[in-house]
Specification:
The protein has one domain. The protein is built from no helices and six strands. By secondary structure, the protein is mainly β. Strand 4 (about 30-35) and strand 5 form a beta hairpin. The chain is about 0% helix and about 45% strand.
Amino acid sequence: MGWNIQGERVVVTGGNCGIGTPFSTWNFQFWYRDPLGGPAGFNFSAGLEVTSCP
């Protein structure tokens, strides 16, 4: 299994990586507390896309 990171895109290659079927794409984003981020008190991370390859 290997990882190929291209900017905000991560490509997983080889073996059963446990994140779904081959060529499936998963998107992630974190929601976190940010007391200094304004009246809302929270913020979001940049998005991350993970693609599974055979």
